[in-house]
């Protein structure tokens, strides 16, 4: 995003409009999107580093889609761990859940709600943290933000965001179209903040 777009966003979230998306601006954005103060600050710490590195802040559409999708997945950045027990994922070979207890152990965590032993192994290796052996670490907001940005990049979601393809992004994150109406509503909010 250019400085003018960032300044408009900063004005909308009521921080100093200096055209630089730093930790303070990200904290205000996460607060606006539903996170509590402590969670917002920790998510901002990760976002300030990893969002630019992943090219997510290159365009307003990428930025809007990213935050809308994560907002849906994490219940407005309030849940860094899935509310359900994870029992529904037990025995799901498509998620790599092949050992007894894998469903609960590898339930959704982080702002993108990474799920399944295979994803914990893959993305843990990509970020250099052993998420497979220590899945609870994925719920740490700053680590979850790194995982989310890595997931976004690996799955090619910037290209779908550039095409404004909310359904395509939803399928790559969710495997289906669960919560599509909420994702669209959150996207509309994000687009509104960026205008």
Can you describe this structure in just a few lines?
With 195 residues, the chain is mainly alpha-helical. Helix content is 56%, strand content 0%.
Care to describe what's here?
By secondary structure, this protein is mostly helical. The protein folds into two domains: 1-78 and 141-195, Orthogonal Bundle (Lysozyme), CATH 1.10.530; 81-139, Endochitinase, domain 2, CATH 3.30.20. The protein contains ten helices and no strands. It has helices at residues 3-12, 23-32, 37-53, 60-73, 102-105, 117-127, 141-154, 157-162, 166-174, 180-193. The chain is globular and about 50 Å long. The model has no long low-confidence stretch (mean pLDDT 97). Residues 61-154 form the Glycoside hydrolase family 19 catalytic domain. One of its GO terms (biological process) is cell wall macromolecule catabolic process.
The total beta strand count reads 0
Strand content: under 5%
Structural class: mainly alpha
Q: What CATH architecture label of the largest domain applies?
A: Orthogonal Bundle
> Which value, in Å, is the CA radius of gyration?
16 Å
* CATH topology title of the largest domain: Lysozyme
Mean pLDDT: 97
Number of domains: 2
* Main beta sheet: none
Q: CATH top level of the largest domain?
A: Mainly Alpha
Q: Count up the helices.
A: 10
Which bin fits the share of residues in helices? 55-70%
What is the CA-CA span between the terminal residues?
12 Å
Shape: globular
SSE series:
HHHHHHHHHH
Ranges with pLDDT <50 over ≥5 residues?
A: none
Pfam family, one: Glyco_hydro_19
InterPro entries: Cell_Wall_Dynamics_Protein, Glyco_hydro_19_cat, Lysozyme-like_dom_sf
Domain Glycoside hydrolase family 19 catalytic: 61-154
Keywords: Hydrolase
